[in-house]
């Protein structure tokens, strides 16, 4: 009798799950995700939006990765197949807390002339990187006491957390001082408020960063060769 009860419970649970998934019509799901502007979502966000159980959300997402409706960016992060979220927005979403900084922010502010193809951020979590169908994302670890100097900006029609220009440069000089990045000799400092930069550098308590600052300003003041 006990075995029969367990079997009956499994059958009931299966039918409940099946009926819940049937209620999630693929077209309706796609329409709602687009309507509310959900560019990158997690299973938790999915089940809260559609008021379904964790199992229902998991099965529906898995099935529709196979069907081509969803694309998996990394574990627990998905997008619609035809969506094109901004790189900075994806970077904020894939690892939290984090903000755009280093080469990506410096390129955005035109402090370095190069185009940066890997999106760089800093985080209080361990350093990590993700290679996704939408691009590569690198996160460098910094201590909590220097996790500051960023704000929410509208970039490429998305609200993203990005370092202020001076903080992006201070973060960059920190990792150069650690020998984890190579100093770019073509920094354009006309958009940098030197006093703000000094304030941020002081947070790191690394004398080598001040030497680097003096070096980049000395290089910036040199006359540029015209080819």
Summarize the structure.
This protein has helices at 2-23, 26-35, 43-50, 54-66, 87-94, 102-108, 165-177, 194-204, 207-221; strands spanning 70-74, 77-80, 98-100, 119-123, 128-132, 135-141, 150-155, 158-163.
Structure description:
The protein has 227 residues and is an alpha+beta fold. It folds into two domains: 59 residues, Arc Repressor Mutant, subunit A (Orthogonal Bundle), CATH 1.10.10; 135 residues, no CATH class. 47% of the residues lie in helices and 18% in strands. The protein has nine helices and eight strands. The strands form three sheets. It has a four-stranded mixed sheet with strand order 3-4-6-5. A hairpin with a 2-residue loop joins strand 5 and strand 6. Helix 3 crosses helix 4 and helix 6 packs antiparallel against helix 7. The chain is elongated, with a radius of gyration of 23 Å. The N and C termini lie far apart (90 Å). About 4% of the residues have low confidence.
Give the topology, please.
Layout: H1 2-23, H2 26-35, H3 43-50, H4 54-66, E1 70-74, E2 77-80, H5 87-94, E3 98-100, H6 102-108, E4 119-123, E5 128-132, E6 135-141, E7 150-155, E8 158-163, H7 165-177, H8 194-204, H9 207-221
Parallel strand pairs: 4-6
Antiparallel strand pairs: 1-2, 3-4, 5-6, 7-8
Helix pairs in contact: 1-4, 3-4, 6-7, 7-8, 7-9
Termini separation (Å)? 90 Å
Q: Provide the low-confidence segments as ranges.
A: 12-20
Order of adjacent strands in the largest pleated sheet: 3-4-6-5
Largest sheet: 4 strands, mixed
Helix proportion range: 40-55%
Give the overall form.
Answer: elongated
Taken together, the total number of domains comes to 2
- Mean pLDDT across all residues, rounded? 91
Task: Compute the CA-based radius of gyration.
Answer: 23 Å
Q: Number of helical runs?
A: 9
Beta content comes to 15-25%
**Oligomeric category:** single chain
Q: What would you call the structural class?
A: alpha+beta
| Total strands | 8
Order of helices and strands: HHHHEEHEHEEEEEHHH
């Amino acid at each position: 009798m006990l075995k029969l009860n367990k079997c009956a419970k499994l059958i009931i649970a299966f039918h409940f799950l099946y009926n819940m998934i049937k209620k999630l019509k693929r077209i309706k799901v796609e329409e709602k995700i687009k309507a509310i502007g959900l560019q990158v979502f997690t299973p938790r966000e999915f089940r809260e939006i559609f008021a379904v159980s964790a199992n229902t959300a998991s099965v529906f997402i898995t099935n529709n990765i196979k069907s081509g409706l969803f694309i998996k960016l990394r574990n627990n992060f998905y997008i619609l197949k035809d969506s094109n979220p901004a790189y900075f927005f994806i970077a904020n979403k894939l690892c939290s807390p984090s903000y755009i900084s280093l080469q990506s922010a410096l390129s955005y502010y035109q402090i370095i002339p190069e185009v940066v193809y890997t999106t760089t951020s800093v985080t209080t979590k361990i350093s990590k990187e993700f290679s996704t169908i939408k691009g590569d994302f690198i996160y460098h670890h910094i201590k909590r006491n220097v996790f500051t100097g960023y704000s929410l900006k509208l970039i490429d029609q998305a609200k993203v957390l990005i370092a202020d220009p001076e903080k992006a440069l201070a973060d960059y000089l920190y990792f150069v001082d650690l020998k984890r990045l190579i100093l770019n000799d073509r920094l354009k400092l006309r958009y940098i408020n030197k006093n703000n930069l000094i304030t941020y550098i002081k947070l790191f308590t690394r004398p080598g960063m001040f030497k680097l600052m003096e070096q980049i300003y000395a290089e910036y003041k040199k006359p540029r060769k015209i080819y």
